[in-house]
Structure formats: C-alpha cells, structure tokens
Write a structure and sequence with these properties.
The protein is an alpha+beta fold. It contains three helices and two strands; from the N terminus they run ααββα. The two termini are 18 Å apart.
C-alpha cells in the first residue's frame, strides 16, 4: 500500500501515487494501521479495498473484501 503510493519505482505507482492517491498520516504508523485492521474485520483471506477508488487509503474509505470481490471492481476503474 505504501509502496504503491509513495515509491515511483514500484510497478503500480502510476495507478496509485501517480494519480495522487495517498496513505493517510495515521496509517503511516503501522501500529495505528494494525489496530484499525483488527477492529474492522481483517483476516488473512481478505485484502484492503478503497470504497472510492479515487480516494486515499484512510479509515473512512477502506474496507476488507475477498480477492474475488475486489476483482469485480477493477473493471470500473478508469485511468
């Protein structure tokens, strides 16, 4: 998540940081992110998804979904 948003050398940067998508300041501290994840349904079979795909990685915009659910949203992204 942080690599996609902040590292221009990361292969997916153009689709995240290159479009202005960021990780909120609160989540830059892993402990804060971990606490949010554990309190919001995280398990190893889920992946994080931004509800507004143009929005940032932040508590009010993220949820946990299955890989299959997330794959169903990729087609709606316009770059």
């Amino acid at each position: 998540m942080k690599q996609r948003c902040f590292n221009p050398k990361q292969k997916d940067y153009k689709n995240y940081g290159g479009r202005g998508i960021k990780v909120c300041d609160e989540w830059l501290d892993f402990i804060n992110f971990y606490k949010w994840a554990m309190n919001n349904g995280y398990n190893e079979e889920l992946t994080i998804e931004r509800n507004d795909y143009n929005g940032n990685y932040e508590p009010k915009n993220c949820t946990w979904v299955t890989v299959q659910q997330q794959a169903g949203t990729k087609g709606r992204i316009t770059l």
